[in-house]
Amino acid sequence: MKKICTVIILFAGLQTALFSEASVWKVTSKKGNIVYLGGTIHLLFKDNNSIPKEYDWVYENSETLILEVDMSKISPPKMIEYITKNGVYKDGKTLETELSPEVYAKLKAYCEENSLQISVLKIMKPWMVINYLMALKWQKAGITDGVDKYYFNKAVEDGRKVIGLETIQYQLKLLVSLGEGYENEYVVDALGDMDQAENHLHKIVDVWRSGQEQELYELFIKNWKVNFPTMYNNLLVKRNKRWIPKIAGFLRTPETELVLVGVGHFSGPDSVLEMLKEKGYTVEKLIIETAPESNPEDALEENADEKPENKPEKNSTNILFRKDFRNAWSVGPGTENPAQYIFRIALRSFDVRYGFLQYSRGEQNYTSMTSG
């Protein structure tokens, strides 16, 4: 598998010398209506965060932005309340009482190796503590916001309509269900994969940037499908099926929409692409000659203190929200209570975790973990 990944990365570097191929598609109905689809990475590295220019092209050639969730609908206080209610043990229970002695000992050892106090974390449920530990690794690795957040900010500043395919409440329910029914196995597998998480994300970003979504399926998602069929079905297949009628609805309008969702939803036989083809829509990969790629960090730094010119006055509230929202999720632990801090960084890493970092190894037999 390492050899395959190396070949993919080398090939991606060679092919971009002449043409760039990104995970972007044009979907056309029989009446000629168009929807653009773009596969995204929810988190990127600060020193490696360029976005293929196909994304800017489809953004400029569309009128409405469709995301997994409309970020303007997110209420941090309400999410913190939900996470505190569903992510922390009550009635005297702790990780020490709910995990097996062997698994708890492994978790404790990991915390000690990383200068963390297990006594502070033991009230968290397994999904919460694992997301927290993963988020700490993302911080050390230099992770920043990804493609979705970049174009959401851009849409707000441009006064563009934004629509969510699902609600944050729905995604939170997915988050709190991680590891349910096989907590010991979940924690052991997560700890065993923790040191490789950064390497996995680098591979995913490389494959995504070169538009090789089928390689993404072969490298990560296929193993997830085989070893975690229930989770694969809940987090990918069911969501894809829920989105198809909505995308079909967009294809009945004269406007052109841009749908940006995690690239994993466009990979493999159960992808959104295959489902749209089965419905009779024409799906074409969009390829454009090379041009400078977008850099989210540069755009944010250049425009952070600038008020957009010639924008409708109705947008001023959204622009203020965007700045407040960014600040709310960027403050340090010293300015918020522990529950807020834990939730913020756990949620920040959620999409990448369930998007095939944690459940892709494939070398072991996970039957006991998926039978329930």
Describe what this molecule looks like in 3D.
α3 (76-87) packs parallel to α9. The protein is elongated. It is α/β, with parallel strands linked by helices and 372 residues long. It has 18 helices and eight strands. The longest helix is centred in the middle third of the chain and has 22 residues, at 229-250. The protein has helices at residues 2-15, 53-60, 76-87, 95-98, 101-113, 118-121, 126-141, 147-158, 168-176, 183-193, 197-209, 213-227, 229-250, 272-278, 296-303, 316-328, 338-357, 367-370, and strands at residues 19-28, 34-40, 43-45, 64-67, 143-145, 161-164, 257-262, 282-289. β1 (19-28) and β2 form a beta hairpin.
What does this entry show, briefly?
The chain is built from 18 helices and eight strands.
Label this structure with key terms:
12% strand; 372 residues; six-stranded mixed beta sheet; two-stranded antiparallel ribbon; disordered N terminus; 55% helix; elongated; alpha/beta; 18 helices; 8 strands
What count of helical segments does DSSP give? 18
Q: What's the total number of strands?
A: 8
Work out the strand percent: 5-15%
Instruction: Please state how the strands of the largest beta sheet are arranged side by side.
Output: 6-4-7-2-1-8
Distance between the termini: 29 Å
Structural class: alpha/beta
Task: Tell me the overall shape.
Answer: elongated
Gyration radius (Cα, Å) is 21 Å
Overall residue-averaged pLDDT value: 75
Q: Helix and strand string, N-terminal first? A: HEEEHEHHHHHEHEHHHHHEHEHHHH
Main sheet attributes: strand count, strand direction, barrel closure: 6 strands, mixed
Low-confidence stretches: 1-20, 299-372
Q: Name the helicity range.
A: 55-70%
